[in-house]
Every structure is written in C-alpha cells, then in structure tokens.
Design a protein that fits this description.
Blueprint lengths: L1 E2 L2 H14 L4 H19 L6 E5 L3 H15 L4 E6 L7 H13 L4 E5 L13 E5 L11 H12 L3 E5 L23 E5 L12 H4 L1 E5 L5 H6 L4 E3 L2 H4 L17 E5 L6 H13 L4 E6 L4 H7 L4 E4 L17 E4 L7 H13 L4 E3 L2 H8 L12 E2 L3 H8 L5 H15 L2 E4 L5 E3 L5 E3 L12 H14 L4 H23 L6 H6 L1 H9 L1
Parallel strand pairs: 2-3, 2-5, 3-4, 5-6, 6-7, 7-8, 9-18, 10-11, 10-13, 11-12, 13-14, 14-15, 15-16
Antiparallel strand pairs: 1-9, 16-17, 17-18
Helix pairs in contact: 2-3, 3-4, 9-15, 12-13, 13-14, 15-16, 16-18
Bound molecules: ligand NAX, adenosine-5'-diphosphate and potassium ion.
Cofactor: K(+); Mg(2+)
InterPro entries: Carbohydrate_kinase_pred_CS (IPR017953), CARKD (IPR000631), Nnr (IPR030677), Ribokinase-like (IPR029056), YjeF_N_dom (IPR004443), YjeF_N_dom_sf (IPR036652)
Subunit structure: Homotetramer.
Length: 504
C-alpha cells in the first residue's frame, strides 16, 4: 500500500472524479456511507451522537455522516464550525442536504460564540473538524474544543484523521491540541503520521475504508513511502533448485558475541541457518568456542586470537555475506578491528547493534562506510550515530537523507520498521508485534538478512524479505505462545512456518 501525501490525495481525488466518472460530491457520499457503516457496526442507534464538523471536506464528510446516522434513527446533534464564513463547496452542499433532510433536529452553525454541549460517558463524538487538509497546528477556539472533547468521557470516532494531527510532520505540533480518538476511520490509505509510535494515542484503533479511489491513478502515482503487503513478498521467495548443494546456497560469515554476550552470536547464527544459508561461519572470541559448538553444531566456529573480544579482522574472500555487530562489545581493540573489517570486506554487509554503537562513538568513521552497506539500528542506536531527534518523523527524515548521502540501506527498527533506500524511498514493514520487544529479537533479524544476502538476494530484497519474514515469524510465534512469553529464540523457531506460509 502506498502512503500518499495530502497534496497527492487531492490529485488522486481529482483524477477519480475526472475519470471514473464520479462527481466530487458523490465521492464524498461514498466515503460517508463507508464511515456511517463502520459506525453503525459498532454503536447501536440508541447511542446519542454529537458531530463536530469543520469548514473543509472533512467537515463535509461529517455532515453527510450526520444525515445518514439521523436517517438510521440515531439522535444526532451537529455543530458546524464556520468561523471564517467560508465552507468548501461539498461541505456547503452537505450542509444544505442536511437541513433539507429534516432528520437532524439539532443543528447549529457556529460562527462566533460556541456553548459546548455536555459530553457524557454514553455519548459518541464524531470528529470531522479537520482531516488531510490540516497544514498547521490547531490554535484558538479549535484547540479549546479539542481539549474539551479529550477531557470528556465520551467515545470519539475520527473521520480520516484525528483532528489536529498533521498527515506528515508533527514535530512542532502541540500534542494537547490533537484529538485522542478511540477509533480512526481513515479513507483509502494510511497516512505517514500513523507509522510513528508517538501518534498512536491520537489514532486509537485504526480502520482503513476502501472508497474506491481510482486504482489506475494510485498505481501511476509515485509515492516516497510504501507499506509492504503480502503480495509484494510472495514473488521474492526463491524456489530451491532440486540440485542445490550447500556450496551454492550461500556461505554467511557472522562476527558476533563478546564475553557475556555469546548468546547474541548463537541467536544470529541459528536464524541465519533457518533463513536458508548453505553454510554459516561464526567468528567469535575464543571464550565462546564450546558454547557455540554445542548450541549450533551446524556452524563452523572461527576463533579470534583474543579470549573475550573481537580483535582480528577476517578475510571475506570465501564468504558471500557478512553480518557484524550482535553482542560484539565496544572496546578500543574491537572498535579498531570493526572499522578495518568494514573497510576490507568485499561482500555485502549487515551492520547491527554494537557495530553501530561503535560508529556512534566515532562518527567520523561513518563517512568511510562502504557503499551499499545495510545498517539495522533501533532508534537509540540511530540517535547515537546521528544525534538526538525530536520525534520519529525527524529521525526518519534523517535516516532518509543519511541513506541517500552514504548510498546505504538503513533499516530503522520499530513497530513499523522503516527501510530507507539509497534512492530516498522508504518501505514500512507491517508484520511483527509487541511480543518481539524482547532481548535478542534484533540479533535474529541480523541473522536472517545475512542469510538472504549470502543466498544472492540484492540488498533491498534481502531487507524487505528479511524484515517481513522476521515479523511474520514473530506473529506466528505470538499466535502460539502469546506475546507475554515470547522470546527471541521463539522467533527463530517460527521462521520455518513463516517461509512455508509465504511459499504456499
Ligand atoms: N480520497 C480521500 O481521501 C477523500 C477525502 N475526503 C475528505 O476530505 C478531507 C480533506 O479535505 P480538505 O482538503 O478540504 O481539508 P480539511 O477538511 O481537512 O481541512 C481544510 C480546511 O481547514 C483549513 N485549515 C487547515 N489548517 C488549519 C488550521 N490549523 N486551523 C484552522 N483551519 C485550518 C483550511 O484552510 C481548509 O479550510 C479528508 O480528510 C477527507 O475527510 C472525502 O470527502 C472524499 C475523498
Ligand atoms: N512492538 C513491536 N512491534 C513490532 N516489532 C517489534 C516490536 N518491538 C520490537 N520489534 C522488532 O524486534 C526487533 C528488536 O530489535 P532490537 O531492538 O535491535 O533488539 P535486540 O537489540 O534486543 O536484539 C526489531 O526488528 C523490531 O522491529
Ligand atoms: K477528523
């Protein structure tokens, strides 16, 4: 699913209206019917409804929904805020239709003074003040109204977006002036702001309503942001050649695990095998030898000369991919070995965890990273490398520009992990769940992506398939075990089921 900007949404509406053929007002009617249906599915017509409509098309939707709810027998009270004496054309038409239908008995057009109604616990508020057209934070009377609604015990359904939330950049928005919805009914496509954890309290539950915007136009519209869908992943699964042998299924090298963090190396190595690598060699401090050999007998263990830390860069000639960083430590000798390793590696690289923390400690080295490197930071690791960000939007913007500047692949991990490609595109991953917020989950991802690279997937594909597969394995594990008890090892155990599902 593409994520469109508000300007693109307007263009798509226009294209749909010009080509379908459907008139603008009829598209609003279609959207409003879908919104009304979603509301009536959850709330009976015994529920008192209070609708707040703004002056634009979001308000137009709200007025049409008010009429439809009233026709369905809901007792509906409507406030239309027309402070600047200007309504969008479709909003004005829906105001006329609402008055004409005579079903809504309680309709107030607010032009100056506003006496807010009592909002009780059993009341449903429909928030149609502003949607995708909002271009600056709410202030004045609208901000007061939002605070009033948020402070009430009423349930709130937002049309398209919680009013006050800007579709993309909310870095300098005033959080107190954004509606906190229980349910957001968004039209056609998710908005960029929905991808960020700090906006979750405003959105509540999210439902995406299909309003049949022209598919042709959506396909033809270039979007910077995309959310992965299963049908984009299935074609990436490579069929195994019946004559395959371990020598042509990819030889992965993992450099991981210092004293006390050997588990990270084990998790990455197991995940690497489960993701289909033909051979996995793990380079690790001598101390980890026995533990590694016992835990993953399938792996070749190559021992560093040091007992407790990685200090010795490896010749990558014989390997198809390198994954480096899980549990590596950040000591001086390890840091020096890391940069030497990154410089001399002549295969695709995934750098994670301490590899990134080391780069964060020595930011000048970041400029020397080889082109095409994959980095998989969680937000804290990213900030160590790039400085603090005020919010997720700012962090993502920095990741986009860093990926372009370094010609690197930056996979910013989170609920919706965001893969930033060297050409500026961003791909969000929808799989995964909160059960994966547990130590070692990231090491598993590193192992998976390293395996896919070793198997010959290009960087972008390895990241896309890798993050989707990782999240899906986590979802399947959570289905069986529940989120509370999920451990990183369970994600590994469910990689086979995830592969099977995607290969069906
Ligand atoms: N394809 C779609 O997604 C469709 C969208 N429609 C609706 O149209 C909405 C977008 O409509 P509009 O573009 O008219 O935008 P909105 O209705 O979201 O808001 C635009 C109005 O708000 C004003 N405004 C912007 N920022 C403000 C601020 N901070 N304080 C006060 N006023 C502010 C603008 O000057 C304009 O009058 C969507 O959110 C959706 O509800 C539907 O009607 C039909 C199809
Ligand atoms: N709430 C969540 N929803 C979806 N995925 C999650 C969630 N929490 C964690 N994950 C995934 O789990 C992984 C955690 O990685 P990371 O923080 O590096 O863990 P660790 O350092 O312990 O190995 C990431 O791939 C992330 O996307
Ligand atoms: K709204």
């Amino acid at each position: 699913m593409k994520i469109f900007t508000s300007a693109q949404i307007r263009e798509l509406d226009k294209y749909t209206i010009d080509n379908e053929p459907v008139k603008s007002i009829d598209l609003m009617e279609r959207a409003s019917r879908a919104i009304t249906r979603a509301i009536t599915e959850e709330w009976s017509n015994e529920t008192p409804v209070v609708v707040f409509a703004g002056p634009g098309n979001n308000g137009g939707d709200a007025l049409a929904v008010s009429r439809m709810l009233a026709e369905a027998g809901y007792k509906t009270t409507v406030y239309l805020f027309n402070i600047s004496s200007h309504l969008s054309e479709d909003c004005a038409t829906n105001k006329a239709r609402l008055i004409e239908s005579k079903k809504v008995r309680d309709f107030t057009e607010v032009t100056l003074e506003f006496d807010p109604p009592k909002l009780e616990a059993g009341t449903l508020v429909v928030d149609g003040l502003f949607g995708a057209g909002l271009n600056k934070p709410l202030a004045g009377g609208f901000a007061s109204l939002v605070k009033y609604i948020n402070a009430s015990p009423a349930k709130v359904v937002s049309i398209d977006m919680p009013s006050g939330l800007i579709p993309e950049d909310n870095t300098y928005n005033v959080r107190a002036n954004i509606i906190r919805a229980d349910l957001t009914l968004t039209l056609q496509n998710k908005k960029l702001a929905f991808m960020f954890p700090e906006n979750q309290p405003f959105i509540g539950r999210l439902k995406v309503l299909d309003i049949r915007i022209s598919q042709e136009a959506m396909d033809a519209t270039e979007a910077q942001y995309t959310i992965l869908e299963e049908n984009m992943i299935r074609p990436l699964i490579k069929k195994r050649n019946p004559f395959a042998h371990k020598g042509n299924m990819g030889h992965a090298l993992l450099i991981a695990g210092n004293y006390g963090m050997g588990g990270a190396a084990i998790l990455a190595t197991k995940a690497c095998f489960r993701a289909g690598a033909g051979k996995v060699t793990v380079h690790t401090p001598r101390y980890n030898n026995v533990m590694m050999q016992i835990s993953v007998p399938e792996a070749v263990v190559q021992l560093d000369k040091e007992e407790t830390a990685f200090t010795e860069p490896v010749d990558t000639e014989d390997f198809d991919a390198l994954g480096i960083g899980p549990g590596l430590g950040q000591s001086e000798p390890t840091s020096i070995a890391l940069i030497a390793q990154l410089r001399r590696a002549n295969c695709p690289i995934v750098a994670d965890a301490d590899a990134l923390n080391i780069l964060g400690n020595r930011r000048a080295w970041i400029q020397q990273l080889p082109k095409g490197i994959i980095m998989t930071p969680h937000p804290k690791e990213f900030d160590r490398m790039n400085g603090n960000s005020a919010d997720s939007y700012e962090r993502l913007s920095k990741a986009v520009s860093t990926a372009k500047h370094l010609q690197a692949y930056i996979l910013l991990k989170g609920h919706y992990s965001a893969l930033c490609l060297p050409d500026g595109h961003v791909i969000f991953n929808p799989t995964g769940n909160a059960g994966m917020a547990t130590a070692g989950s990231g090491d598993v991802l590193t192992g998976i992506i390293t395996a896919l690279l070793a198997r010959g997937y290009k960087q972008a594909e390895a990241c896309i398939l890798g993050m989707y597969l990782h999240g899906l394995a986590g979802d399947l594990a959570a289905k069986k075990l529940g989120m509370e008890s999920l451990m990183a090892g369970d994600i590994i155990e469910h990689i086979p089921a995830a592969f099977n599902y995607l290969s069906e």
